[in-house]
Amino acid sequence: MKNILKRLFYLCAVVIFTTLSIVTPVSALKEKTWDMYDLNYIYYYDPEGEECTPTSGSVVSGDNTLYNGDPVLSTSSLQKIAENKPFYEKSANKYNIPWQIIATLHYREAGLNRYNPSNGQGAYQLYSYTGGGKNGNAFLPAGPISDDEFQRQTDIVAKLIRDNYGAGLNLNTDDDVKLFFFRYNGTASSYISQARDLGFSEAEARRGEGSPYVMNLADEKRDSRKNPNWKQITHDGGAMTDPANLQPGAFIIFSSLGGSSGFSSCTNSGAGNGDLNKTALELAWPEHGHGLNARDTYKTALADVGLSNYGDYYARIGASCDAFVATVFRYSGVDPNFVCCGVSNHGATWNYVVNSGKFVEVPNNASSLKPGDIRLSNGHIEMYVEVDGVGKIASASYGSRTGEIGPFYDNSATFKAYRWKGNQ
User: Fold this and answer.
1) Angle at Cα 324 formed by Cα 346 and Cα 320, nearest 5°?
2) What is the mean pLDDT of the chain?
3) pLDDT per position as a tens digit, 350-360
């Protein structure tokens, strides 16, 4: 009996060690000096060591399950994503998009495999963009591809996500991510009608709620096993006659990887106090002179809101005016979807403040401004704060200095002021 128990113990130990070796490199286990949280075997930095759980209303939960308890992704798929993640992240950071979108497209288009299929269209099925036989380009040779070639194709899809299919969208919001995937697959009118028939609003229908490519297996009415009227188009230009397959929709996969803003409570796991003034003072140095050396509280916040591995170098280290203001809004919990980055030439942040409908313009003078108000020009963004009732300016400067508190000054000739509507 003792020998049998010893063998069972040895077998369990081998299985546990083997599993850890597959999921996490041995070197990482030895060198890990910070707390991590594990979401579907994909590891993320969590400086506070807090456990992250999905918020209510999410279509998938943190343990990789669908609405009915089935897994979204298999263990082998999750392991492939972990192996490919450095490639996804490199391209995502280059083009300022969530890496989970790239991983989802790779899953949907090539089953996460690093090879060119026989149709010559590459690992992301990008037709002529990667040399797929159109516009005079040669077909890509079928078979496995090198790391360099996979990175090249991943860079191409990331640029297309930003400049083509994702143009004009805020890919940090769930609704726009759904619309992106709907665009990528083709916004078929049949799927818009299908969403209407299921009771979705016109706006919901037009962002892909009725598309199996986007939302398959989100709930019972979008599961063909439960609803035989949930159908899909199986051939380009064909009719919608066949019940949808059982492959999870793109948004479901994206959410299971932590990409959904409604999924991860870690987006606002820091201050979360709903107080812009208090958060800005906690993150910024109390006076000038610190250069690119961010305050520890600011470093933590950058990581928590996803900016420490998102955007260009200066945004990642917090030495960018838009990154500082975005972090204050996200970390405080006031606006988890505040867009970063870009204020010059009417960039993404500038456009978000001016055109999102979430802010109202107010007079830019000391007697009118309230703590948390934004002052914005075509080139700089900063926040009005108060320290013991005295008006100050909290800001960072691109490539020059991190978040700091400075004296108030009059810039009304070139700057406009904006106030968060919920803070009026």
Assistant:
1) 60
2) 78
3) 999 998 889 99
